[in-house]
Amino acid sequence: MKNMAPFAFLFLLATAHVVADAPSLGDFTTVTNLWYEGHKSNVLAIAEQRLAANSNDLAGLILKMEYDLEFMNVSNYSNGIIRVLEVSRSITNECFASEKPLFEMALLDFLDYVAHRRRLFSLEEEAQERAKAAIIHKPMTYEIPLKALHDDGLF
Known about the structure:
Blueprint (H helix, E strand, L loop, with lengths): L3 H18 L6 H9 L3 H14 L4 H13 L3 H15 L5 H22 L7 H11 L9 H9 L4
Helix pairs in contact: 2-3, 3-4, 4-5, 5-6, 6-8
């Protein structure tokens, strides 16, 4: 039994290394802090990891949509918003359900706006908006529905 201690230590060390290397799907606080501190590409990476694990992960879909909107990935707007709307309709948990009407209305209004505009921004305006995206200490636009998902245990 005395000789088992070194092996147990090595096992724990190896296990801790594997867990440390496992991809993090993020939690609400970590993700919003990353965004606020300007590490928005890390938030996108978390969104993509979440979506790779579950393509219907609403938190991942919202995070990806948030990134696309922030960085003017205009070609992704409609599909991203439609996908978020489709998946959000299946969520009936209490906290998210209370935020859902306003959230969906905002997304539908923006989708309608996009559909009726030939071009959302001039190339110069797009460049200015992308530059603004790099500014730190800005909260996420859709932080409230993400917080509701967190409060429901879905984030």
